[in-house]
Amino acid sequence: MRDKVVVLVAGGRMVQTGQQAALTDEELAAQLTDELKDSAVFQQWSVQPVSNYTLRMCSEIIDMAAGYINREGAKGVVITCALEGLAELAYLADLIWALNPPVVFTGSIFNAGSRRSETALRLTQAVKSAMSGSCTGKGALVCLNDALYSPADIIRISGCASANIFAFPDAPLAVFTQPLDELVQIRQPRRRQVQSLKLPLARNIEIIDAALGSSDLILKALLDKRFDELEGLIVSGFGDGDVPSSWMPLLRKLVRLNIPVVLAARDPGGLVQDIEDYEGSSSQLLEAGLISAGMLTPHQARIRLAVALAAGLDGDDLKSYMRGGV
After folding, report:
1. Which of 99, 127, 174, 205 has the fewest CB atoms nearer than 10 Å to its CB?
2. What residues have CB less than 8 Å from 211, skipping those under 6 apart?
3. Where do the domains of the chain lie?
4. Which helix or strand (DSSP H or E) is residue 45 part of?
5. Of residues 171, 96, 126, 165, the one with CA closest to residue 14
6. Using only C-alpha atoms, what is the Rg of the chain?
């Protein structure tokens, strides 16, 4: 595997021809252009629905990718993944990937067996990206839509439309001039804070979403029965991070129980701000001890909190990291 790109097959439509059938390593290698066929080695991981992935499984595949570079001398790693979970998996990798060779995530809207299959195109672009010197030191990257994106910039990926990615800022890091031609860099990614993990990732970090007319039923059930199993909670609030007033005493209780509770804005591109002051407002939630997620989406905040706890961060260091510091 030395000086080659390792393609870790973790499922997704780009490697599946139907409900269950998946392309073999030989069939995947045949998707690459002739110039790249000898540059990639395929390794099967676990072809299963992304809805079955746990955070620990996600950290295991990232560790496996790093092992191919550290122990086998791979030039880079590509990971295929279902689009439904790609943004979160790539974001996790970006938070802990300390190696210079890149790890590139890619996927497809259409099954490999369909006439609109993107398998050959996306796989070729991802392998090219992993081999490119311009991607060295960039951490984790997402290869979709004939471009490369930073996982930190992605706020949504949809698996049901050709325009399947929303990023902020809008410009990708790099684009392919033609679908299979040169990779042209547009901008640098934002500075990353890479964490060295001391413990396995937390298992039980949950998200509770404030919706119009939401009751406090879930929070009450959590406090009555299962709070001792909870390692962290992400609260996805309206606007600047507001929640129903009935949630306030329950969230205060969770904070008193020393459970990290992080406040995120539920709207894509939203920002937690302490502007208004009333029961359930972000101002009162932050004053009660909730931790601001800044501009992170609730799903990014969950991944980031899992990494922070595994790295042993607490107190002011935890708050700074959740806002993008440390």
Report:
1. 99
2. none
3. 5-185, 205-322
4. none
5. 126
6. 21
